[in-house]
Design a protein that fits this description.
Blueprint: H1 8-19, H2 23-36, E1 41-47, E2 53-58, H3 98-104, E3 107-113, E4 120-126, E5 129-136, E6 141-147, H4 154-158, H5 163-180, E7 185-190, E8 193-197, H6 204-212, H7 214-217, E9 220-223, E10 237-243, E11 255-259, E12 262-264, H8 267-275, E13 289-294, E14 300-301, E15 312-313, H9 316-334, H10 366-376, H11 383-389, E16 423-428, E17 432-437, E18 440-445, H12 446-463, E19 470-479, H13 482-490, H14 492-498, E20 501-504, E21 509-516, H15 524-537, H16 546-558, H17 568-578, E22 594-598, H18 599-605
Parallel strand pairs: 1-7, 11-13
Antiparallel strand pairs: 1-2, 2-6, 3-4, 3-6, 4-5, 7-8, 9-10, 10-13, 11-12, 14-15, 16-17, 17-18, 18-22, 19-21, 20-21
Helix pairs in contact: 1-3, 2-5, 5-6, 8-9, 12-16, 12-17, 13-15, 15-16
Bound molecules: adenosine-5'-diphosphate and magnesium ion.
């Protein structure tokens, strides 16, 4: 074929493909225009999943009659004049491509009346060509109807997904805009029937109740901006809601992020949210979150993606940190408080226990937590144990598990109780502790629970900069492969922080002088081999620092094993410490430490109801 310049029509269709990929893209562009025009009420009507009709009406500024046709020209925009304007874009649109693209691949009719005009205008396009233009009576605002989308681009039409898929995309899109703009009233009608509406109360919480339902929303936690005293960094605000750890999903699609009112896809920021749940959620489970991130427009480059779905940050690390900090704070502050009385709640693990679905965890008022605090001060409960637990005691190697050897951690007595008082009943299969609480029966995985306790104590000491107590060994030597030996050598500092005292001794061997006291009764060769394995596998996706990984390794190795018979006192000691853990419901690897069967559930299972 000889080289020829494409006709305007073909060029326009190709260009349109960049912006308009499916019916939801049309809805997105039209909603953004309505928002940019200051619309307070936006209605979207669709038929046949948007293929036959998409109509978006707003009560915004409208377009002057004289500009109605030019609005459909490519690169026609009222939102940007110079290249410098790009650096401080405050509108959702700026390229002047949407109306041109939409009109190129459909039959488009626009009726609009500018807020200062007495009469409106109506313009119609077919496959990009103007077919009519006339004055029209209309209320202030704009109505754009898009019919027979892709009628002239059969290839695109062929690749459209099913009607129900397109409908789902459109619903999701409108729900998301309603979240980002809680002061705007959104409505979606499908085949004339209302599918969604928001109330324009200005409160994100109201939109989330509409979007997720009250059941789900009840398990969401408000995220508020965490001020950061760093004048060198831009002000970054993070507001929204995120799920309590018990509420989770098998993929990350429910993490919705907005940057300056724009829905964005950002792997790294989603990961910041996921990471805030570190050790609180099992691996492979993801939170639900809706976060509105606000920062100065010059900090964000919105011009990097054809549909503006991705943005670039000038200070990406600061945005990452702000999101992670805000979510972590919210989850830590509110998530681990279980109900005290009566009401059953779900295990922290999102999995479904074998005895059927438990009702969702109800919100707990602060006053209930206070009551729990008072209860815990009852004589004979913790008082006598406090003093003799603030010291490390080298474990007696004859007894495999001595709860008194577990360091109590700093300030433990003042730590708020995070579980109701549990009464130990016994042990099952040398693996699980059976306990009774005010809200029913608890099965506690002794190994996972002990791991959690040790991990938090370790972290607490670390945070307080307390040196880890070591256990000095009769000198032994451990040998590694050359590659692993280099890794160990490189990480001697991290290992020392955890309580390992190693010294290079020959080419690939190390002399072991001391190990963390928690591991005093274990074979140092075994432990160091596991540590070496961790060093070798490095920090993978979903994991944070190596130091944290090794800490978890130490706690896992030190924790009481499954299969170990525990005395009543040992069980009691373990449960009492678990009751004061910050996150008692999961082990540091995110698996559940306990299952709970409510009194109601027992009654139901026994047919007493
Ligand atoms: P952009 O939004 O990038 O400017 P568009 O092609 O989406 O480009 O729209 C072109 C212009 O038409 C906009 O700049 C705006 O001035 C006007 N416009 C489009 N939709 C509306 C609307 N709903 N209300 C008022 N003006 C609108
Ligand atoms: Mg636009």
């Amino acid at each position: 074929m000889p080289i020829q310049i494409l006709s305007d029509t073909v060029a326009a269709q190709i260009a349109a493909g960049e912006v308009i990929e499916r019916p939801a893209s049309v809805v997105k562009e039209l909603i953004e225009n309505a928002l940019d025009a200051g619309g307070g009420s936006i209605t979207v009507e669709i038929e046949n999943g948007g293929r036959r009709l998409i109509r978006v009406s707003d009560d915004g500024s409208g377009i002057a009659a004289g500009e109605a046709v030019v609005a459909f020209a490519r690169h026609a925009t009222s939102k940007l004049r110079t290249v410098e304007d790009l650096d401080r874009i405050r509108t959702l649109g700026f390229r002047g491509e949407a109306l041109a693209s939409i009109a190129a691949v459909s039959l488009t009719l626009m009726v609009t009346r500018h807020r200062d005009a007495a009469i409106g205008a109506e313009v119609a396009f077919e496959g990009g060509h103007l077919v009519s233009e006339r004055p029209a009576g209309a209320p202030i605002g704009t109505v754009i109807s898009v019919e027979n989308l892709f009628f002239n681009t059969p290839a695109r039409l062929k690749f459209l997904k099913s009607e129900s898929t397109e409908r789902r995309h459109i619903l999701q899109l409108i729900t998301q805009y309603a979240m980002a703009y809680p002061s705007v009233r959104f409505r979606l009608l499908q085949e004339g029937r209302e599918q969604f509406h928001s109330t324009a109360s200005g409160d994100l919480a109201d939109v989330l109740v509409e979007a997720f339902g009250l059941e789900v929303f009840r398990d969401m936690i408000e995220v508020s901006p965490q001020p950061l005293n760093r004048p060198d960094l831009p002000p970054i605000e993070v507001y929204g809601f995120t799920s309590a750890p018990a509420l989770n999903r098998s993929n990350r699609s429910q993490i919705v992020l907005f940057v300056n009112g724009r829905v964005i896809a950002d792997q790294s920021l989603s990961y910041a949210v996921i990471q805030a749940y570190h050790t609180l959620m099992p691996q492979g489970r993801y939170p639900l979150a809706v976060l509105l991130i606000t920062l100065p427009p010059e900090e964000v480059d919105v011009n990097v993606h054809p549909t503006k779905a991705e943005v670039r940050f000038r200070h990406a690390d600061a945005v990452f940190a702000a999101v992670q900090r805000a979510v972590r704070r919210a989850v830590m502050d509110q998530a681990p408080i279980p109900p005290v009385q009566g009401d059953p709640y779900q295990p922290a693990w999102g999995g479904r226990p074998d005895w059927g679905e438990l009702p969702p965890r109800p919100m707990v008022a602060g006053e209930q937590q206070l009551r729990m605090e008072l209860e815990s001060l009852a004589p004979g409960r913790f008082g006598h144990q406090r003093d003799d637990r603030t010291q490390f005691r080298p474990p007696d190697s004859a007894s495999s598990f001595d709860p008194a050897a577990i360091p109590a951690g700093l300030g433990r007595p003042t730590r708020p109780r995070t579980l109701p008082i549990l009464r130990v009943i016994g042990q099952v299969g040398a693996m699980y502790i059976v306990a009774e609480g005010p809200a029913g029966l608890y099965l506690i995985d002794q190994h996972a629970a002990h791991e959690r306790i040790l991990y938090e104590q370790f972290m607490e000491r670390q945070a307080a900069m307390q040196p880890v107590t070591q256990h000095t060994l009769p000198v032994t030597t451990v040998e590694f492969s050359p590659a692993v030996a280099r890794l160990v050598e490189e990480n001697l500092g991290v290992l020392a922080k955890l309580g390992f005292d190693l010294e290079l001794f020959g080419a690939h061997a190390f002399r072991v002088r001391a190990v963390p006291v928690l591991l005093a009764d274990q074979d140092p060769h075994d432990i160091l081999r596991l540590v070496a394995e961790d060093l070798e596998s490095g920090v993978g996706p979903g994991e944070t620092a190596l130091e944290d990984k090794l800490t978890r390794r130490v706690c896992k190795a030190a924790a009481v094993k499954a299969g170990q018979t525990l005395s009543f006192d040992e069980m009691q000691g373990l449960i009492q410490q678990l009751e004061r853990c910050e996150s008692p419901r999961t082990c540091p690897h995110g698996r559940p430490t306990m299952l709970h069967i409510s009194g109601d559930e027992l009654a139901r299972q026994f047919g007493r109801e």
